[in-house]
Amino acid sequence: SPxxxxxxxxLQQANRICESRPFREALWRHLPDPETHGDPAxxxxxxxxxxxxxxxSLRHHGDAHVxxxxxxNVALQQYNAMRQILHLFHPPPHxxxxxxxxxxxxxxxxxxxxxxxxxxxxxxxxxQPEAVDYVRExxxxxxxxxxxxxxxxxxxxxxxxxxxxxLFSHLPEQLFHQWLARLWAxxxxxxxxxxxxxxAALLPEGLELPDPGILYGEGSEIPELGPAHYGxxxxxEDFVMRAVxxxxxxxxxxxxxxxxxxxxxxxxVVTRSDxxxxxxxxxxxxGWVDEHRVSPEGELYLRGWAASLDDGPLAxxxxxxxxxxxxxxxxxxxxxxxxxxxxxxxxxxGWSFHLDMTGNTRAQVxxxxxxxxxxxxxxxxxxxxxxxxxxxxxxxxxxxxxxxxLLGVGSAPRQ
Length: 415
Prior knowledge:
alpha+beta, 7-stranded mixed sheet, 4-stranded antiparallel sheet, 10 helices, 28% helix, globular
């Protein structure tokens, strides 16, 4: 739909933030092993103005800082998830590796991947021509246009690693099977196919999966593709495993990693190689900043939660304000978080933070969730004026509203 003047203003704010040095430096600090990514100046944080993932977050939150924090928190987590799987089956260096990012959108993953892998090794494929042109020109990768009909998609080569984030979570049953078979045909002898789905555990209340284990409905962030090709799908593990056996002729191993993509979608890894090493996969930390404001008296107030599906609640979050580090303990009750994730361990994941900012004109804030293993998640980065009132917000629309806010789902579940 056409952008309102308010949305246009938010997009302009987001563009200015992405070009700022503090924002780009914060992103760089949260890369896994940043020293392996070369010169920090190579990181281009600007986002295409038609990127549906950013536009959805801007419309949902009405705050450019929050939307960008969510956009890049997901990007960083997806990048870390992909790297773990890639390095298990194809350890670096990746000079000769052929990588396909299928349904790549406007390059949320490729922006980071191109920092650690030669761009010539990466093929970006997307059904939106403007997106293909953008990632090819901006990141120097090879671009390829996808097709609505899987039988018409023929790149003329096979790949060592195919990554498909949040496409199968939008496909009706027939296309699910067709695209799975087509993409598997493009995996070489030692290659790997990774794709994500909405598991049945994410079904809205009151809905159940029919036989054979997939529920498909209209509604997505790309309505131009039409409901016959692209909507929202929920699947059972049994449905996916049967689909993989059919697509691969039973010659491949398949491993499911629950909630591996943005702590929401399951990732399935399909390969002829041994998959036992995937049992050590780490989702990393996760969380959210629910409230963020500076009072007229100059007090900075932040409130949120932080946890890990791997380890449970984190001991604390790290908060930097104008370059000064602070450690904020968790431990406050968050029954809503425990309910959404179905994990009682996450109940004491809440935290709150106060800081007197008298004498400052701004508060440059960075909130990071860190596990005991040193894994990081960028929960929030913003520049808040002092002492101007900043409206924090608390979503009170119930558990489903919380799920949308925490995970960036709703009308745009494609992560």
